[in-house]
# Entry
Amino acid sequence: MAILSEFYVASETPDGGVTLFTLTEDGTLEVKSKIPMPSPSWTEVKGGRLCAVLRDRAAGEAYAEYSIPTGRLLFGPVPTEGVSVCHFAKDGDDVYCANYTTGSVLYIRDGVPTLYEHKVPEDGELGPDKGRQERSHCHQCLLSPDRRFLLVCDLGLDAVFVYDRGMRFVSKGSVPAGHGARHAIFSPDGGKLYVLAEMGSSVTAFDWDGERGFLTFRENLAVCPGHDGLTDAASIVLSKDGEHLYASNRGTANCIAHVTTAGGLRLVSLTPSGGNHPRAISLVGGGRFLVVCNTFSDNLTLFRVEEDGELTHAADYAIPKPLCVNEI
# Structure
């Protein structure tokens, strides 16, 4: 059977590393190789390198880059100067790392790191949940489609902050109070930004003005309505045509929400994730399959994406503490 896709899965354990999987058209998963690295929490394939932020207790939290062919360390590790680094954005020699617990962004430019405490005095109002929004909590760094702006999702401040590439504040867009902005994704045409809120388990749609770097609120939709328990939304992806949005819910919900975007946001269905704590999801194989990282149950679940966007279970694979998926 022909190989449809190859993708990496990061395991946040001291010896977890990043495992390369192959996927065939019939939904068969096989391990091809592995790149050792200590406790990767987020990874991306950039410029022929596997880039990662590491949360290793022994060596400390850091950003590093590895050779894909050999697994050899090529750059770093550069300490992130914060606690609970969970995401990064890279473009050329510029790298922006989000430190969740300490609410800061480490900007690495030409190999030189500078730490920015993520607090905007005139727009730094904390969210209403004093237990989880006691300070800034940076959860994602995302570059705009034209790479002119950096967007930072902040769970503690219920907002997406927009900066220029030199980390100068430009604007912000707010999600509903107490919802906690976690991750965002741009529409394929670059005209909209969809922000997944962890605490509110909701998606907020914004219009994006790429000339000025401004966000304008459009609408908000619950992606796990009526659930009596913890939902903690985690990951958001879009189909290539931008018409189907998928979001994972954790807690006691452990499900994947399917949302259509045509004519406004509409929740279509909720599908069990196939495990516990679906922290990251990713579309692979030209959007024909959805991979779910069930972190607490140590397994991947593979879903086939049907023509109408609905999900059908295809396979499962055991892997320790999967956190992130990157298609090659």
